[in-house]
Amino acid sequence: MDESPRRIISKESFHNFELCKIFRAFSLWIEDTNLHQPNVCFSALGPNYCCERLKMIINNDQQDWFDLVSTDLLKDDLKQKLHSWESKKKDSFSNQITVESHEKSVQERLLIHLTKNKDFKPLSCPTVINPPMREIENIALSSWNILVELIESKQSIIFDKARFFTELASKLKQLNFNYKNLVPQEVFNEDLWETLTKSCHKGLKCTGPATFKLKVQRYVTNQRISEKIENNRMEHRLAQDQLLNLPVTELCIASIHIENYIRALSKEMENSKGEESLQYKNLGVSLFYHQIEAVNKVITSVKSFTPSRNFFSTSIESLGNVFICNQEEQLCALAKAILKYPEAGELAFDVFNPNVASISVFINLYEIITSTIRFSSPNTVFVLLYKIDLKGILRGKDVNFCDRRKLFKQICKTLLECGSSPSEELQMVHEVLTKHFRITLLFAFPEFYEDAISFVLHGMVRNELAINLWYEILHCFGCSTLKEESTMPAIESALKKYADDVLLPPDQQIFVSSQPVNIKEVVGTLERLHEMFMDERSSHKKSIYEVYEMHVKPFGIFLALLAHSMLCVLNENIYQKQGPNISQLWRLLHISFYPWLHPLKKETCFLFPWSDEQIENARFLFQLFVICLKNFHEKLSGYNCEKSILSYFWSSYVEIYVKSDLRHCYFCVSF
């Protein structure tokens, strides 16, 4: 193009020209009926545009779809925009004649654009346009019965269309299934005998023509199956046509009515005060729960039909954001509704915000959610629990000890209900509960130390405790690297580090997660474990290794960790200028492992606590016992002790095994 005749264009003229191009393209799209095919217009302008509605406005067609819309305002608005564009149309085209001379026309470029079978980004408007809606009569909002009747009359239309769509979709699925089964039966092989005659060839010595009978197979059409296939195709075509031509207008009418009622109710509540505002709020709250219950009754149809699902999702979200969201008094009722109607309750997940509750309401809410874990949808329970910011609640709500303990016990109770091996459906719920268990236990550790020990022992006895919870307690002691896959060298290294840390002054301990466990609590726990498992050995016919097989490894590590915690006595003796009480340390170490390692005497033989099948688990506990003995010996070597801990060990061995009427053997442990 020659640049010399190009004229300088003002900014206003340029924008006017662009607007005219858009207007011309829009006009062409309206006038050309060939462009209204679904495969053309939807890729270009998106599914939100409906040419039939625009045509109704232009033709002043006063159907009931517009009984809530002011068509006069729409027409006046269109006339103003058209007049503004047309007044500047001539100037903009005269200014741009040189620019457009070598370009294709707008119609040509638009046709090329629309005929391309590609995905285009839908047109978007940067501003929110609220349609001009007529005001709802006060009588519609004055009574709950009237409001529900008006909404249900329109809502039933949406339900009917959704049900009709679901039935058609199910019918199509069945027709497709029948078609796949009928096609292989349409043609089959039939055995036939064919008679063939072979003539003689000249020059060959033969006895004359020969006749042969051959058995052959031919394809035969099953007329009855063919008729069924043809009927199937006709029914499929009819159902598909019905599916593609659902009456959109009726759905739009019902949707606009209900949305307008919700908008009017919200507006009235905002503009009112006192008792009147409370009345509108109660109406909105009741309507919210009514919608969830109504949708749940026809949830199968609603989920299958996208327009109905989108509409109810929007209406429930709109009601929830205005009347339910961030309202503390509605949290428990909302959780109950979501748990009672899980599929419809999914539409209200965004409204649920448990973090705004006070601690008393939160504990009640937590009990409501976790108490339904056995008979509610695991996905629903998971989402409700996942939305809880427990760490933020414990820090920001000034929670007292009693409330924290009540919450902790509820978490423990729910974890036991999940079982020792949670199902695949409950796995996500169990992970969230484990996270809450860790947060609560670590918040002021060792505040709930005794409760945690009672919890794991109770779950261990009833075989309802998941193994990973043992390692959560080990994490609170500072051994966060230990897990079920840890090898013996890794366990030994972690215990040695823990022993080193225990002997440091309290202000220098960096390995322990928080405050150390009180020595009296450790002593009480070790004595309790000794008494418990000695009773288990005498009462069970099976060995305790067999009864608690899955818990042997984490329990053994926990036992060794508690034994190492006794080393803090050395620090206390230093501060009190006393020598370490080796006999006390040995006694606690001895009684800790005694139920698992030492035999019981019966007549002329020993009864060991393990069977041949459990020899590996017994070896594992022996190794842990040796690690404890080794670390005790090393840590005590620098202290002025009247007697080595190994001498106590040897004395105990002689006392248990060396009997005049029994054979005994010696064994050596090297350090």
TrEMBL record:
InterPro entries: Autophagy-related_EPG5, TPR_Epg5, TPR_Epg5_mid. GO terms for cellular component: cytoplasm. Belongs to the EPG5 family. Residues 16-69 form the Epg5-like TPR domain. This is Ectopic P granules protein 5 homolog. The keyword Transmembrane helix does not apply. Pfam families: TPR_Epg5, TPR_Epg5_2. Residues 326-664 form the Epg5-like central TPR repeats domain. It comes from Trichonephila inaurata madagascariensis.
